[in-house]
Design a protein that fits this description.
The structure is a single chain. This protein is an alpha/beta fold. It has a single domain, classed as 3-Layer(aba) Sandwich (Rossmann fold), CATH 3.40.50.620. The chain is 33% helix and 16% strand. The chain has a 5-stranded parallel β-sheet. Strand 4, helix 6 and strand 5 form a beta-alpha-beta unit. 29% of the residues are buried. The structure holds adenosine-5'-triphosphate and the ligand O=P(O)(O)O[C@@H]1O[C@H]([C@H](O)CO)[C@@H](O)[C@H](O)[C@@H]1O.
Length: 177
């Protein structure tokens, strides 16, 4: 059977670029953001299955999911490796914005997203299960206005660092070592 396809697509597949907001633009839109607003952050250098599981789960918790990514300068300061990030911030943002479960993407240039969280006052803050939420300043902050903070299930075996090592070693997905 031939699939019928119409252009422009009626709905459900907005131009990813329209989901990317510079910090100033987001500030202007902040009162229009749907609530409950779920907020998460990270580098998202090479998108993998673990990321998609957790972003999908995050979106189920509220009416909209905002992902704040580290700028390239901020990502470099995290010390993940001299070659990181491999993908520039505009590209990392565009890939995330292409996911249906992501409603908006923005950037932060600081070492943590605390100042941005303070501005946007999300209802729910999430990270993946590799974080102990009780130790984070982000958790203390969102709870200060009655928000929630939680870690979503970690999908073991998936990480950007692991992928980079596999590529550097020339190992395929079939190689268990
Ligand atoms: N395997 C996974 N399962 C669920 N969540 C994950 C997983 N890996 C990362 N996350 C979450 O995705 C977000 C972005 O993480 P990050 O970009 O650091 O991924 P990473 O694969 O751990 O990368 P790196 O190896 O460069 O640290 C974080 O909130 C993190 O908790
Ligand atoms: O992709 P990562 O390394 O999971 O993202 C980091 O998260 C940190 C977290 O919010 C604890 O503070 C953050 O500080 C850091 O800038 C990265 O976004």
């Amino acid at each position: 059977m031939t699939a019928s396809f119409s252009f422009p697509r009626p709905d459900g597949c907005p131009d990813p670029q329209t989901k990317i907001f510079e910090r100033d633009a987001l500030r202007r839109w902040r009162n229009q953001l749907p609530r409950p607003l779920v907020f998460t952050n990270g580098v998202f250098d090479l998108l993998h299955t673990g990321h998609v599981h957790y972003l999908y789960a995050a979106r189920q918790l509220g009416a909209a999911l905002l992902v704040a990514i580290n700028t390239d300068a901020s990502a470099r300061r995290l010390g993940k490796g001299p070659e990181r990030p491999l993908n520039r911030q505009a590209d990392r943002a565009y890939v995330l914005a292409g996911l249906a479960c992501v409603d908006a993407v923005t950037f932060f240039d600081e070492d943590t997203p605390v100042a941005l969280i303070d501005e946007l006052r999300p209802d729910i803050y999430v990270k993946g299960g590799d974080y102990d939420m009780e130790t984070l300043e982000e958790t203390r902050l969102v709870r200060s206005w009655g928000g929630h903070s939680l870690a979503l299930p970690f999908q073991s075996g998936y990480s950007t660092t692991q992928l980079v090592r596999r590529i550097e070693a020339g190992r395929s997905a079939a190689d268990p070592s």
